[in-house]
Design a protein that fits this description.
It contains 12 helices and 18 strands. The protein is of the alpha/beta class and 431 residues long. The strands form 4 sheets. The chain has a 6-stranded mixed β-sheet with strand order 8-13-9-12-10-11, sandwiched between helices. The longest helix has 17 residues. It starts with 15 loop residues before the first strand and ends in a 9-residue tail after the last strand. 38% of the residues are buried. The structure holds S-adenosylmethionine. The site of S-adenosylmethionine has 25 residues, from helix 9, strand 16 and strand 18.
Length: 431
Amino acid sequence: MSGSPYPLGLRLTGRRVVVVGGGAVATRRVPALLDAGADVLLVAPELTPALRAHVDAGRLRWEPRRFLPDDLDGAWLVQVAVDDRVAAAAVSAAAAERRIFCVRADDRAAATAWTPAVTRHGPVTVAVLGGGDPRRAMSVRDAVRELLAARAGQPAGETTVAGAAAGAAGAAPGRPSVPAPGESGADGAPVGRVALVGAGPGDPELITVRGWRLLTEAEVVVADRLVPGLLLDELRPDVELVDASKIPYGPSRAQEEINRILVDRARAGKVVVRLKGGDPYVFGRGGEELLACAEAGVPVTVVPGVTSAISVPAAARVPVTHRAVAHEFTVVSGHVAPDSPASLVRWESLAGLRGTLVILMGLKNLAAISATLVAHGRPAGTPAAVIQEGTTTAQRAIRSTLGTVAADVEAAGLRPPAIVVVGDVVGALDT
Ligand SMILES: C[S@@+](CC[C@H](N)C(=O)[O-])C[C@H]1O[C@@H](n2cnc3c(N)ncnc32)[C@H](O)[C@@H]1O
């Protein structure tokens, strides 16, 4: 086929797309079709487990047999994802008869449409055709992706909560009542936005792709003490960096002050990232910040992070669950002593569990915590590990037992931030 391809963006919502074949190619092609809202009919005698999961979830219809020309009746597009050239040619012929575009995985020259290499950045989709050379298309796509990563807008699918009027968390993005960033609010003032971004446990590479992209877009970054310094190093020089750990007053006044900064900057039209260690909702006060923004009518997005509760043990070769060893793990804060009236944790009940206990912020009260657990039935010989500054180059870790862990931490001079893991999973990966 000669001539340059004519690029189009197909709007497939509710439109029938037939996929012929149930193997690896179909597995790769189907998710984007579903994402586009297509009414997918899959024709194949066998399916990969991933495709079967789509069928089981009711996302598409499956005809468990070989292709019949009538399968194309009512279709707008067909994707041929079979190796068998004769079978593929039969689909092509049926498609041509019906004037339906046909993508062929087995033979690009015989296809009437090509699938491009794609990168998506929020509302922006870049599709690259490499003149019939998929590798060329992918390398150009990768270069474009790098460039756009620093500049793209808010991606579709991000959960945005905007203002008390938007109701409970989980409001859909793009609600009519929500001014877009940079637009004016009802009072004519510019409206920015806030993203509560989990920065991960310490290794700068453990932030999510979305979190990192939002960080590159930020005009103001309000950062916690525990966020990886290297991430801040990469900010543009004109970004206003607010070190939340240096805000004076007591803990609750400091939180109020942080909330105020987030709201004020967003109301001034700024794109604000509140960068928090680990995950914003795991002992991170992310909920309070979300509510403060929502009450002020500021659009706010939450980007989950890799929590230290799981990743820090993992960095010390401790899986929080392991087959035939632990069927549960419990994450608990140890910042309040077990005998304090302010404690919300039933340590005596936790002592009765067999699984893994992950204690954050527990070093100060470790002697009391471990004594309480032992007093209420957890064996003193239960393995324990303590990991300081996990996933960073400064990581230190000790192995111990519940009975001796407090003394061992003291002797080793471990200090916060640290995580204590109690349970038989400690040592499960030792060979
Ligand atoms: C206020 S909590 C915040 C937890 C965070 N939101 C998360 O999801 O990981 C801070 C505590 O998390 C734990 N922590 C966070 N990062 C850590 C790391 N890199 N190494 C060890 N402990 C860490 C420590 O127990 C620290 O005192």
